[in-house]
Amino acid sequence: MVHFKNEKEDVVPVRGSPYKASFIEDAAPNANKSVGPSLAKAAQGMIEGMQSFMKETIAGVKLGDKDLSDVKVLLQISDNEYAARARSDEITLTLDQLQESLKCLIPANLAKESH
Questions:
Q1: How do residues 25-39 score in pLDDT, each as one tens digit?
Q2: For residue 87, is pLDDT > 90?
Q3: Judging by beta carbons within 10 Å of its beta carbon (0-12, 13-18, 19+), is residue 105 exposed, middle or buried?
Q4: Do residues 43 and 111 make contact, with C-beta atoms less than 8 angstroms apart?
């Protein structure tokens, strides 16, 4: 497990750890670069996963098209809201990882910055 000294000088595990590395014997040489196509593919996967979760959650909590007198509907809305809160730390970590990945990928012309 990787540790670091935080702002209070405490030695703590890196948030999200332990991280796992995997290796393939016949991998292309550029797949072993820390800033390469593998990182770009992982970042794209993070983006797609976040987009999918957000679409599903937003659709699940949107009130306009639901029968609010139906208890089952209200429970589904509650479940979607709970899912977003329960995954809050995970979502924040994923967004932080994505931001750091893009900071490496954009200067290497492996990703585009958009606003």
A1: 888 888 878 888 889
A2: yes
A3: buried
A4: yes
Supply the pLDDT for residue 115. 62
Separation of alpha carbons 89 and 87, rounded Å: 6
φ/ψ region of 109 (left if φ > 0, alpha if ψ in -120 to 50, else beta) reads left
Q: What angle do CA 55, 59, 62 make, to 5 degrees?
A: 135
Q: What is the mean pLDDT of residues 9-15?
A: 87
Residue 5 DSSP code: E
Q: Which pLDDT band, with edges at 50, 70 and 90, does 20 fall under?
A: confident
**Tokens encoding 53:** 């979760």
pTM for the predicted model, two decimal places: 0.75
Q: Which of 98, 104, 94, 105 is nearest to 16 (CA)?
A: 94
- The span from the CA of 105 to the CA of 81, in Å, is 33
**CA atoms lying within 13 Å on the CB side of residue 57:** 16
